[in-house]
Amino acid sequence: MAKIAPFRGVRYNPQRFEKLDLTVSLPYDRIKGDLQERYYQLDEHNIVRIIKGKAFPGDTETDNQYTRAREFYEEWLKKGILIRDLKPAIYGYSQEFRLPSGEFATRMAFIAALQLTDYKEGVVLPHERTLSGPKEDRLTLLRATAVNFGLIFMLYPGDEIAALLAPHLAKGPDLDLYAVGEAEVRHRLWVIDDQETIAALQAQMEPKRNLIIADGHHRYETALAYRDEMRQKSPTWEPDMAFNYRMVGLVSMDDPGLTILPTHRVMHSIPHWETAEFLAKAEEFFEVSPAEGKDELFSKMAQMAAKEHLFGLFDGQGYHLLHLKDEGVMDRFVEASRAQEWKTLDVTILHELLIERVLGIDKESVKRQENINYIRDAEEGIEAVKSGQAQFVFFLNPTKISQVRACSGVGEKMPQKSTDFYPKMISGLVMMPVGKEERLG
Is 439 inside any structural domain? Predict the structure, then answer.
């Protein structure tokens, strides 16, 4: 049972800012390199100071990035930088963006509080593994602030909810902005506090199961841990207490704007690398053929993606297409306990056959990223090879949403960097307090 509830969101006060674009950010796990500093420079009230504040050498248990996050939040509320909606609401959220093809698409979502359930209950399913470090970081921030600042990107089955949202989304949005970090993505937010609409959304969601976490596995598992902690501290806890819920952005699996981008593999620091030798070894499993250039390579990969397993390779001298001869070969190298849905993912095939078998790079080396970098932009990989920063790059087709659904449905978690749902749901649009005094329903 997928139980959702409206909540009284906390939002940036539009009367205090000429441009709300300067207050929002990508999710914390996407803030890498110099992007944190860019957000710091945009505005002194940018959400990055809370979700991924700077750590300093002199930090202590009572003065650190997490305590400062709480202080920023409380101070901004007192000064009216942040304001709280008067009525419980559900929030419509659209993202308009440019596809790699150059065309524009729109993805529709709504933001609500989702009652937390353990994975074993089958209401919410993961599709990726999590690491302990990010979860501890997020839990420390949650303990310090008792607020959900970022969204969990959640997929739900069916498309009937779009009709319920349509009349509200036809009106002018309450927020309309662009975020630094992902170019040409327009974010619009609508505050929906109409009780009849909210009740209809709740009724539509309640019977649903097998909601899939697209982005935010660490945040979801952090919310579960926080819920359990709060229940221990409050033996007389009630189901409507906000810590039993998590703020999520919900998107239909049938949404025409639902987009997954491929994550390419840039390979470097491999001793005695020779393209000819590699391709000769790869022919045990793949048909190898040259491509005239990147346009021909990507065109062939796209044309055959529906039914075939293909990979591209660029080594600085030329482009090559690798076409798997027989997916049954995976049974020789992957343990029998693995589901067929997992064995036949392109990412699995690439890592098990080309990276591990042909190149001889083991799983632990891959996990430590000793010879591999992950990129979204194919051109970035090509330039890395041309500049000598890398030896070659593997190009992949994007994982299909049907494959995500299939793996989650049989309890398989996909390999690292299997999916890149685009665009990301940004932080700072709306926030949800989850302290013990907060109630939902």
Answer: no
Indicate the SS3 state at residue 310.
Answer: strand
Whether 328 and 351 map to the same domain: the answer is yes
In this structure, which amino acid lies at residue 241?
A: M
Determine the Cα–Cα distance for residues 368 and 65; give it in Å rounded to an integer. 27
The residue type found at 131 is L
Whether residue 365 sits in one domain with residue 278? yes
Separation CA 414–CA 350 (nearest Å): 13
CA atoms within 13 A on the CB side of 241: 18
Q: What is the average per-residue pLDDT within 332-346?
A: 90
pTM of this prediction? Answer: 0.93
Rounded Cα distance, 283 and 301, in Å: 18
User: 403 in a domain, yes or no?
Assistant: no
In Å, how far are 159, 255, 267, 301, 403 from 354, measured between CA atoms? 39, 34, 12, 17, 21
Backbone Cα Rg of the chain: 23
| Nearest-angstrom CA–CA distance, 246 and 230 | 14
Q: Is residue 417 part of a domain?
A: no
Query: Residue 248 belongs to what domain range?
Result: 4-259+422-433
Q: Of 222, 129, 107, 110, give the one whose Cα is nearest residue 408.
A: 129
Encoded tokens for 336? 């029998």
> Which of the four pLDDT bands, split at 50, 70 and 90, describes residue 416?
confident
Are 244 and 289 part of one and the same domain?
Answer: no
d(CA 242, CA 225): 14
Domain annotation covers residue 140 = yes
User: For the chain, what is the domain count?
Assistant: 2
